[in-house]
Each structure stands twice: as structure tokens, then as C-alpha cells.
């Protein structure tokens, strides 16, 4: 592999990501409301723009605003996946890391990028608002991508220094390049933490005229903080007192109110008084119950997130050892096969919406054909199947390598077409249509309006924690299987590794996770402010 060409290519791509992202951001900052003055007073009640001015229906909101948000999201995803898809190749190539170490690094970065939205959502919902958080995060994003391009440039200069360069200076330059690279990489992850949880919620807000203005999110946070103090301080309150208070407030005994009844203690003040401001409202208690109900779904979705992390690591390394040539002589980059995930999503979503939903609706009577929880579980089943197929393909690859005497020749291409990997990538995309989209809608829909940025951050945190768990699992397996001088499952020579064992292990974990998920869904009660499923 010509790493100079690779680095120059990375540099060119990074610069183009930056240009695309900057253009999209400049479009989103523009103020379309100044272009025209409405003839009639069409102010939307209870809604203000990011400057605190009344919002007019004729000059803001709906697709007029959402289109700019979509452009920014497309540019951000283009930049993010341009980095994540090629990261393991860059780490094992120019930076010279082992396969296991590089996979752990990629998972750690993906984990940080998916957990930081919790911080970003907190800042947006409690202090800055979604709009300002998106703008600031986007500027930091551009800075991170620019520094990544700079680190690639420095690497190109270092590699062209030749043998005449001073060894000490070269070593110092390489060390600085590595530090700059990882600093830039995590700066991008930090920026995504502010961008990702806000942009979807902000886009959805453009169509919801009933939502409270964003600046009230700060008071919502303190309401929830005070709620927590009232569940704790009333822990010794008798249930007879709670029942009396529920009857006085006219609370009907619904399935929702019967769950987590200990939280109803927050309806009473610690001293037994009923002064305004000293107790929580019925809605606040029900909102707390809704958030707690999400916890089992969040936890049992982690196995899917662990599986999801493999497409950008071992799948790519697997493809790099296979025959990637085409009839025209062009060699397919191994990382480009990840595009089949997106392609299968683009192809199947219309089929899901126009064919699958009407057919299942006729059978089940559900408005969406199947419930959100059923949709998420279906994707988990598909992802488990994709792992079994990946294991079978890897077994076939190892057998061909052995038959051609390539076990100790890792540089030689295994005479097996890279197109064998397409089914597992396509099934990953199909699983995403069910589970990823289902989780997004589920965590947005089941959270209170004021906390929907946090809801989307919780959804993203599933994949953050999943990436960290994947990194931990890889490190543990690497240590266990490499004892006594043996080749580990993730040996740098993939012809002596056993990715097939790893895929089968993940399939088994997925089956266990799916079983636990199904058990949890039996007891889930949908929030009343969400749609009826």
C-alpha cells in the first residue's frame, strides 16, 4: 500500500469535508425572516426565535427552517463517516498500530462520540438552547476537521524527509503528529456531542407549534432536580397517605399510575403540607416514571450496539485481505463496502413505508404496522443473523487461505472476492432500518417535550456504551487468546486469527440480549403524551 498516496487522499478528503460543512453552516446561520414582512399578524403563540423575538408562521418554521437543518446534518454525517470509515485503516497503516489496538481505539472514539451527547443535551436543554448549541458545536467541528487535515499534512512531510532527516527531529515530529491527530479526533467527538442530540430535536421542533420555547428548558431542569429531592425526603411516607393524596387530586388508577408507586410520594411535602411549590405535580411524577421505564430498554439494547461497532473495524480489515479487483482493473477500497449499509437503508426504507407497513397494519391493526418495540426487536434478530453469516464467510476465507498456502503470507491477497462480504453489510443496513430508526423515534417520543434532546442523547449513549463494551471485550479476548505465545483471535495476520469465533460469540451475546429485551418489553407501558401504539 502506498501510504503517501493514502495520506494525501485523506488530506484532500478532510479539506473537502471542511468546505462542505462550512458552506452548510453559513447557510443555516442566515436569517430568512429579514427577506420579507408579512402583511398579516401571524405570530405563533408561545414561540420565540433564537433572539427572543416573536415567531411568524409566514417567515419561519416548517420546511423553510428544517431544510437548512437537514443540509447541516447531511454535511455532518458526510464528515463523520468519512473519518470513522477510514480510521482503522489509518491507525494500522501510517500510525502502525496492531489490529486489536486499532479496533479498540476506534471503538473508544466511537464510544466517546456517542456518550458526549449526554453533556451536549444537558447544556442545550438547561442553558444555551438547541440553536446556539448546534452553531457552537458546528464551529468546533470545523476546527477539529481542519486540524485532522493538518495532521495528515504533517505526516506527509515527515514521510518525505527520507534518510537524511535527523532521527531525533523526525521522532519529535512524529510524536507531535500523533498528539495532534488524537487531539483533533476527540475534538470532533466533542463537537458531535453538542451537535448530534440537538439537531434532530431542533428539526422536529420546527413542526411542533405546541412546544414551549427553548429558553424554558432551564427551569425544567431545576424542576426535575427538585422532584428528586421530594422522592428521597418522603421515603418514609406511608402508602395510605399517598392513596389519600391521589384520591384528593382525582388520579385515576391506570396501568401507568400503578407502576413505580413509590414515586407518588413526591406528591406530598415532607412536612405533610400542601403549599404551592413544595410538592410535585402529577405530570412531573408521570414524567419521572416514563424516564425510568426507558432504563431496561436502554440496557438490553447494548448488545445491538456492540454488534453495530464491528462494521467499521473488523469487517474492513477482513475485506482488505480479499480480492478487491474489478473487471476494469480498479481496486475497491475495503472501507467503501460500508456504503452498502447506507445503500440497503435507502432501498429498504421506501419498501418498509409503502409495502411492509400497510401489509402488517392489515394484519395487526396497528397504525404503524408494528409497535416501536417490535420494530426494534426485529432489527436485533436481523443483526444476529448477519453475525452468523459473517462467521460463515470468515470460515470460508480462512479455508481458502489454507488451501492456497497463504497462512503465513498475510500480504498476499486471498483469492476470494470481496463481494462475499456484501450480505453481512446489507443485513446490517436492514437491521438499522428497524432498530436504529426505531430507537430514535422511541427515545424521542417517550420523553417529555422539555427533555427530548436528552432522550435523543440517551439513544446515542446506547452506542457510546456499546462501543466501550466492544473495546473492553476485544481487549479481554486479546489477552486471553494470546497467552503462551499463541495467535490471538485478532492477530495482525488475519489468516492466523479467528474472527469467525468472535462473530459467533457476538451472535450468542445478541441472542441473550434479545431474550432479555423481549422480557422487558412485556412490562413496558407507553407514555401518555406519546402516540398511541
Q: Helices, strands, pairings?
A:
Elements lengths: L2 H27 L13 E6 L5 E3 L5 H31 L6 H17 L1 H12 L1 H30 L7 H39 L11 H17 L5 H10 L6 H4 L23 H19 L1 H7 L5 H7 L1 E2 L15 H26 L7 H32 L10 E4 L4 H24 L6 H30 L17 H23 L12
Parallel strand pairs: 3-4
Antiparallel strand pairs: 1-2
Helix pairs in contact: 1-2, 1-5, 2-3, 2-6, 3-6, 3-16, 4-5, 4-6, 4-7, 4-16, 5-6, 6-16, 11-16, 11-17, 13-15, 14-15, 14-17, 15-16
Please provide a written account of the structure:
The structure is a single chain. This protein has 533 residues and is mainly α. The chain has 2 domains: 54-233, MFS general substrate transporter like domains (Growth Hormone, Chain: A, Up-down Bundle), CATH 1.20.1250.20; 260-265 and 280-523, MFS general substrate transporter like domains (Growth Hormone, Chain: A), CATH 1.20.1250. It is 67% helix and 3% strand. The chain has a two-stranded antiparallel ribbon with strand order 1-2. A two-stranded parallel ribbon has the order 3-4. Helix 15 runs antiparallel to helix 16. The longest helix is centred in the middle third of the chain and has 39 residues, at 167-205. Mean pLDDT is 75; it is low at 1-40, 160-166, 211-230 and 232-236.
